[in-house]
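Two records follow; treat each independently.
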Amino acid sequence: MPDRPWTREEVLLAISLYCKLPYRKLRQSTPEVRELALLLNRTPSAISKRCCNYVQFDPVESKRVKGFTRAAKLDKSIWAEINSNWDSFVIESEQVEKEIRKEQPAPPAQKTVVAVIQDSSFPLGLSREQMVRARIGQRFFREAVLTAYDRRCCVTGIAHDALLIASHIKPWKDSDPKTERTNPRNGLCLSPLYDKAFDAGLMTVDDEYKIKFSSSVLSGHTEKTARNFFDRYEGKRLSLPDRFTPEQQFFEYHRNYIFIP
């Protein structure tokens, strides 16, 4: 019997899952893969293979792992569409999942420790609909960014969700709603101290992905503090993600408009 053709809605959810899981977890035994298979009435193997195929769309991850190379035309078309409008992809995939789940009983609530969402830059005066869209986008952005960085701070290597923040390189309020706000390539996974330093313009990243601190940070502390928290990382290259490598245009904006030399 021939395979059932994949629909746009199914591809959207598969790509969304790919963005939220590291490659090593895109296996048919992974709970999230099995859950999506059940939701779409497909086998875990089919979900796993479909998600692994998307590795070829990322120039960094495709070199790191040997993925599949036969993406369907529909997948290629949707991937291109996503890159031109991340916001619409995030909202549409969220709506698709809700529609599919609406006839199913809600699972029992569970307590989990989650990473901090950097949303303090939301401007005042947003409508309820705009706020809902923003929070859906931030939730996706957080998961995609933390997954890309293997849930480790790209400066220190700290690996605890409660101590990690998905930080925008180009601030959310200044970012294009379609191509930048929820684009994982506009993100860094940082622990709180370095998130605050980056957001305040006291730290930036050069065109070789090396860390640079403001002179006021390097000279404004005791020698021990400066050495432990700043000097040791000055000039160090960021630990780059497995996928969604940050685009230099975002760092350039940060250096020109946010960073205080």
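The next record belongs to a different protein.
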Amino acid sequence: MLEKMGVKFDANSLKVKNVAAVIVTAKLPPFSRVGNKIDVEVASIGNAKSLKGGLLIMTPLKGGDGKVYAIAQGNLSVNGYSVKSGNTKSKAVKNHVTIGRVPNGGTIEREIKNSILENNYIDLILKNPDFTTAYRLRKTINEQFGDEYAKAIDSNTIRVSVPKGLKDNLIKFVAIVENLDVKVDTPAKIVINERTGTIVIGKNVTISSVAISHGNLNIIVEENENTKQPASFSLGTTAKTKTTKIKIKENKVDFSLLQDKVTLEDLVKALNSLGVSTRDMISIIQAIKASGSLQAELEII
């Protein structure tokens, strides 16, 4: 690489301990133009210990078609550190020091041809496909322009024809549409992260009539070691004896009755009234789902 740049040197004398092999990625924004600047992500793919203070040399960024769409170069910004104490094994590490960014380090070299308007209409794609949201959006757009300009193709796509008075001002038309206020339908869903003990309950979660009883069975094993001394002036020796006690304790908890169509607030109050921990709540929610009383999707991550 250096020889291609016109630099002459002895290859045997080159030390490359401070050279890192990296992979460079970037996201090409929509409607980007040649010369626009973009941020670049840099990550080590070799055995480099740190990229802090590094410099990314000119790197072509290619798309899936093999064409170069941008050129990246610049100083790396690494949000972290790794410090080691001499020959000891003591070290302090914060975040990942083998991943960095080059703010505005990429320059766009090739544009992607795109157009908002195709055949006098635009397609609005919902981020979260939902039939209710698609219906509400279609209705709101038609009420805004006073005619049937919008049509819901499916739960994901709404096709909107451009009114005659706005065909010469497409930017205004898109601005009007994107500023419309539409109530988004949220699915009934509970997300549980068992690793961290996190529970997130959606607004539309309901529960059919169900009775819940949660109790803890505690088994305590106590083992004590005693010393037994022989009688005075005897030939006996000191001996050690062990005594073991087993205690079984079960906490008494009454049933908690949840009426039909319980809301999120009622569910949280009922679980809190049982005095259970977050881990126990996860088990209870899974049991309610297994009983068929939970009217929501349960996702465990």
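Discussion point: The CA atoms of residues 149 and 163 lie 7 Å apart. How would you locate this feature using only the token line?
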